[in-house]
């Protein structure tokens, strides 16, 4: 009997976790990643420290990457799945890798195709792409990981920075109704990092409400105020203008003081939301997976079967099904691997009734 074969699409946290667990269980995993490196969006965009424990992204992801690299997982980097045909309970797939076409037949497929950051150009009143000192928080992660916090407009250190939460999330105007789950935590974490490196920089977070669930409340929200002196303004910035001195003017309504406010800042960081990546939408089409109302892949049952899909033998994990933190994505990768292994086992081994 040949060893069962699994295709994992995506080499970010959830895909790495799934591939690693399949290999550990003795299965043959093929990991297809469109980039030329493993680690997904956190590596691609040079994330800095991860909330809430302020660990460098390398400390969290590199052991997982090494584990996959030193395992039996067959890694196809700079590659993408071009076609999938289900035949006799197996999946015949065509993968394009380094200009060549590879054909494989696999027993089960795991979709771990991740998310994209919402494009802040679409919120024109925040002037992203117009004023260089308005950046989004993925741009700022890179600055933090380089420990080089400077205004893009003039290369000087900012004196005062604002974060604006819920950009492209909870916003009917742009058609994104859902909460991004991580924007508050990441923004607060970034403000804490700034204060740790440069305590002389003033940091302000504009919020509608703060959603730091679970342990993130005390590890981030309270800590940021009590130990790092991060300040909070309840209200949403209506627009960002440019003052005569070249600084940015945040025009907002302070909803606690109930009055308009105009505050000058040297930089404004937009906490952009998450949406389904192109890879996720492509995978859904190739595999015939349904898309749910927010644009992500729909699990079979979001509460009781979050990594199963309506297509037998196809599993989904991580941010392909919606906004999620890295530890949750890693956990879901393991869950999808277990489901896929059990699916194949049940098809190849006669399982006693009730087992
Ligand atoms: S996590 Fe925070 S920033 Fe993101 S949408 Fe929810 S409330 Fe807004």
The helix/strand order is EHEHEEHEEEEEEEHEHEHEEEEEEHEH
The major β-sheet equals: 5 strands, parallel
How many DSSP-defined strands?
A: 20
Bound molecules: iron/sulfur cluster
CATH superfamily membership of the largest domain: FAD/NAD(P)-binding domain
Mean of the pLDDT scores? 95
For the largest sheet, list the strands in their spatial order. Answer: 5-2-1-9-20
Alpha carbon gap, first and last residue: 22 Å
CATH topology of the largest domain: FAD/NAD(P)-binding domain
Quick gist of this model?
The chain is elongated and about 75 Å long. It has helices at residues 13-24, 40-44, 57-69, 137-146, 183-197, 216-226, 278-287, 326-348; strands at 5-9, 28-33, 49-50, 55-56, 74-77, 79-87, 90-97, 100-106, 108-111, 115-117, 134-136, 160-167, 202-207, 231-234, 237-242, 248-254, 259-265, 267-272, 274-276, 314-316. The model has no long low-confidence stretch (mean pLDDT 95).
Give an overview of the whole structure.
The chain has 355 residues and is an alpha/beta fold. It folds into 2 domains: 5-116 and 275-348, FAD/NAD(P)-binding domain, CATH 3.50.50.60; 119-272, FAD/NAD(P)-binding domain, CATH 3.50.50. 28% of the residues lie in helices and 29% in strands. The protein has 8 helices and 20 strands. The strands form 6 sheets. It has a 5-stranded parallel β-sheet with strand order 5-2-1-9-20, sandwiched between helices. Strands 11-18-12-13-14 form a 5-stranded parallel β-sheet. Strands 6-7-8 form a 3-stranded antiparallel β-sheet. Helix 4 (137-146) runs parallel beside helix 5 (183-197). It is elongated, with a radius of gyration of 22 Å. The two termini are 22 Å apart. The model has no long low-confidence stretch (mean pLDDT 95). Iron/sulfur cluster binds at residues 165-166, 169-170, 179-184, 211, 271, 273.
